[in-house]
Amino acid sequence: MTTLVTRVLAKLEPGGAQLSALRVVRGLEAHGIGSRVLVGWASPDGLALAQRMGVTVDVYGSGGDQQWQADPRFARWLEPRLRDAALVHAHMFGGWWAASCAIPDGVPLVASEHNALTWPTGEPPHALRGGLRRVDRLYAHGPGARRAMLDAGIEPALVHDGISPVADLDGPQLPGLPSPRIVFAGRLHAEKGPDVLLDALALLPDAPPALLLGEGPLRSQLARQLRRLGLRGRVRLLGWQARPSGTIAGATVLVVPSRDESWSQTAVLGMARGVPVIGTDVDGLPNTLADGRGIVVPAADPAALAVAIDDVLQGRRTTDLVGARRYAVRFSLERVAAQYAAAYRELTGAPRDDAPEDDQWTERAVVQA
Which pLDDT belongs to residue 361? Predict the structure, then answer.
């Protein structure tokens, strides 16, 4: 028997939510769940990311970024593509709202919300509440998302903690890197705060080299900031790294200076590699770094960040590296994929993962680009 599971992403770009979803698509293959992928809006880098990961996508491609839009046109595009689905898992408001309008009666709808809802184009409360009435299970990736969904009226029993896989928890360290070193890994976007890190480094003239991994809309601005602060000899913009673990491993400190962060795959990767992590007091990031797993500082505060970095460099502050590693291994791809596979089978009434081989699942991942 073939069971079709459709995954809907509101947008596809090299971000944590999308990277997580594509990893899960691949990880589910070990559970007999194949993948066919459709998409709402995608950047060229997002499409390239899917290609590198071996995930084929079909694209809606109209109306721009779908993350915050309650777009009836997108719902109409989805409708014929959801007719044979046994379960739909949709990510980000624009994805699960459209899926809620298009999904056939009786088909379970799983929604994932990865960040606190900021509504840059204006909050659509009626659309939010209407979409939630059709959701059978919601994964909230952070306290901000959970709070917003509960405030909108979803039944608390339907809300679960979101889980994301982190790759290369034990990969090799790349040779030839400076030691000691400071590392940042993430999108070069204002919400990730790489500009705050540069301002902090300008306050630490004796700090070791810093390596910034990632691409994004702030790259040109950061290059100008490097020149203005006199950091060009101390800070390198290394661009997108498909496997950042090799650069993070062996670092003296990993900095996550976000202005908005529900969890942080980067922080978990650093903890898995035995690197002290400094993060900011935003949304769910303090929970990620709780119990001594990391150091938390105020967001958008270069002076406080500089003090914390210097404290780690000088050995005045330490983190619980053993506890951090124990926490991080919970998010291996194998463990996360197994949890989603079990959830899908529970919602559809399909046999468990130890069923005979002729009980095959096919996941159709709908990536809206």
Answer: 47
Q: Is 49 helix (H, G, I), strand (E, B) or coil?
A: helix
- Residue type at 40? G
Query: What is the pLDDT, as a whole number, of residue 34?
Result: 78
Domains and their CATH numbers in the chain: 2-165+332-368 (3.40.50.2000), 182-329 (3.40.50.2000)
Q: What are phi and psi of 138, to 5 degrees?
A: -125, 130
Instruction: Using only the alpha carbons of the chain, give its radius of gyration.
Output: 21
Q: Please give the single-letter amino acid code of residue 228.
A: R
Contacts from 101-107 at CB under 8 Å and sequence distance 24+? 101/72, 101/75, 101/131, 102/75, 102/76, 102/78, 103/134, 107/82
Burial class (CB in 10 A: 0-12, 13-18, 19+), 364: buried
pTM, entire model: 0.87
The strand pairing partners of 182, in sequence order, are 210, 253
Gap between the Cα atoms of 35 and 53, Å rounded:
12
Is the pLDDT assigned to residue 164 strictly greater than 50? yes
Structure tokens belonging to residue 161:
């903690």
Say what the pLDDT of residue 276 is.
98
What is the tens place of the pLDDT at every residue in 133-146? Answer: 999 999 999 999 99
Higher per-residue pLDDT: 364 or 25: 25
Is the bond preceding residue 180 a cis peptide, omega within 30 degrees?
yes
Q: Which residue has the tokens 């699942």?
A: 361
**What contacts 24+ positions apart, CB below 8 Å, involve 356-360?**
357/32, 358/1, 359/1, 359/32, 360/1, 360/2, 360/3, 360/32, 360/34
Backbone angles phi, psi at 73, to 5 degrees: -65, -40
In this predicted structure, the answer to whether residue 122 has a pLDDT above a threshold of 80 is no
Buried b (16+ CB within 10 A) or exposed e, 226-238: beeeebeebbbbe
The H-or-E segment that residue 50 falls in is helix 44-52
For 241, the 3-state DSSP assignment is coil
* Cβ count near 224 (within 10 Å): 10
